[in-house]
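Moderator note: this is an archived Q&A kept for reference. The question asked for a predicted structure of one protein chain; the sequence and the answer are reproduced below.
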Amino acid sequence: MPKRYWWVIITYVLVQFSGVIFIPLLYALLPINQIDAFVYWSLISFIAGVIIVLQLMKPDMKQGVNQRDAASTGNVILWSILGVFMAYFAQGVAGSIEVKLLGIGQDSENTQAIMDVTRMSPLFMIIPMFAAPILEEIIFRKIIFGRLYLRTNFFIAALLSALIFAVIHGEPEHILVYGSMGLVFAYLYVKTKRIIVPIIVHMAMNSLVVLIQYNIDPEELERQLEELQTIFMLH
């Protein structure tokens, strides 16, 4: 694996865990509360991480542009639109299986935590809507899936990269949902030879979830989720 990929992975790990040191430091040094310290450092670390990773990935971006069988701009747009519908369909099927067959609730603690912070500080939505999809698709699709794909096959590579993604997010119980999205994102990447396509689809999905949930009262959202879960259990 190219050395720059290891630096990308190290950068991502630092983005994820640097807050352990710097959030308390910001809270101690600045006249802000703990939530603001968390939001400010998260924004700093994720934005810096995106800049560093994009710099490290410049050789790959140049290679992708010059790749003959890579999708054209028109196809990038087409597959980005189709990809959103494909990902939502796959996620819906996986979610139904989790609820109906496995008895796993649809609630996502990761999503709920993100929305709790976003409601307190709307600026935080920059991370799930833009920064996180860029980093995650480069890490989990371009690097992890891409390297596994060279040694195994599509399904093994896609599922393993999705499993790692689920574990990183602290929700291994939702491996089917993460796995279904991972399969779609990986397919889009392989089909178009453009990592920008799964990035766009990932951004679109996250943005829709954030914007919809941001404008819905949490108690009303919880009631709707309970009703939806009941429907899944009855059919």
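Archived answer notes: Residues 98 and 104 are 5 Å apart (CA to CA).
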